[in-house]
Design a protein that fits this description.
Elements lengths: L2 H15 L7 H12 L35 H4 L7 H9 L1 H4 L14 H12 L4
Helix pairs in contact: 2-6, 4-6
């Protein structure tokens, strides 16, 4: 066997076994969440940081986590977080809730990354 053939076969095996090929969107989503959101947010219930925790955010009224000092804009937005609203907010928070208090965060531009984050936020046992 030629050395080049072995490298190609090993590369194909690693691609086949790689979780980034759709086998586990939660891992990919968690990594994307960590890269884009974890500086200010966690998904652990009751663990508020610079931003409120995002535990069970889907179906929750915006501005409703106890003991978190939300902006008036967020508290009075009337939003109940669903997948569509989260996708738009993650893309451009200011366009969804003007004056939301998330400066200097300006959003995630990649539609794929936004979708991964929402899948992660919706996943049970995160």
């Amino acid at each position: 066997m030629r050395p080049g053939f072995i490298i190609v076969v090993c590369g194909l095996i690693s691609l086949t076994l790689s979780p980034s090929h759709g086998q586990d969107a939660g891992v990919s989503g968690e990594q994307t969440f960590n890269n884009s959101c974890r500086t200010c947010h966690t998904v652990k219930d009751g663990d508020n940081r610079v931003g409120p925790n995002l535990h069970d955010i889907v179906g929750r009224k915006a501005g409703s986590v106890a003991k978190f000092p939300y902006s008036e804009a967020m508290k009075s937005s009337g939003i109940v977080w669903d997948e569509s609203t989260l996708l738009r907010f993650i893309e451009d928070p200011e366009a969804v809730v003007s004056g939301n208090g998330m400066k200097p965060y300006t959003g995630v531009r990649s539609a794929e990354d936004r979708a991964k984050i929402v899948v992660f936020l919706k996943s049970p046992g995160k």
